């Protein structure tokens, strides 16, 4: 597999293979259809969310800048102190659910 890895630095190497003109032309409906047809799409139902547990793993965390829908952040904040930890727990539960459902090298 190591033969397939290419290292480049920012500003070096060739152009990517993404057709940005085609991507920019996609409508919201096109995107929704692509998401619906993607076998990796995971939409948790309310029962799944009820089973999600807030765990505080001893793993170190990293600071990132992320953008979420206003309604999502407001809902988590309304739950009280520790809302970011709960958001992390939901993301972790999703990650682990996907890992369990996809025994594939794409999802290590």
| Ends distance | 15 Å
Largest sheet: none
Proportion in helices: 40-55%
How many strands? Answer: 0
Uncertain residue ranges = none
Q: How would you characterize this protein structure?
A:
- By secondary structure, the protein is mostly helical.
- It has a domain at 43-101.
- It has 5 helices and no strands.
- It has helices at residues 20-25, 28-37, 46-51, 70-78, 83-101.
- α4 crosses α5.
Question: How is this structure best summarized?
Answer:
This protein is mostly helical and 108 residues long. The protein has 5 helices and no strands. The longest helix is centred in the C-terminal third of the chain and has 19 residues, at 83-101.
Secondary structure: elements and pairs:
Layout: H1 20-25, H2 28-37, H3 46-51, H4 70-78, H5 83-101
Helix pairs in contact: 4-5
Please describe the structure with a list of short key phrases separated by commas or semicolons:
single chain; 108 residues; 5 helices; 46% helix; extended
């Amino acid at each position: 597999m190591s033969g397939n890895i290419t290292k480049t630095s920012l500003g070096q190497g060739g152009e990517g293979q993404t057709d940005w003109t085609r991507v920019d032309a996609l409508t919201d409906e096109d995107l929704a259809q692509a998401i619906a047809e993607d076998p990796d799409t995971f939409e948790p139902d309310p029962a799944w969310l009820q089973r999600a547990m807030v765990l505080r793993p001893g793993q170190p965390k990293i600071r990132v800048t992320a953008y979420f829908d206003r309604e999502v952040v407001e809902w988590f904040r309304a739950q009280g102190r520790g809302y970011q930890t709960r958001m992390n727990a939901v993301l972790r539960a999703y990650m682990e659910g996907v890992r369990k459902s996809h025994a594939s090298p794409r999802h290590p």
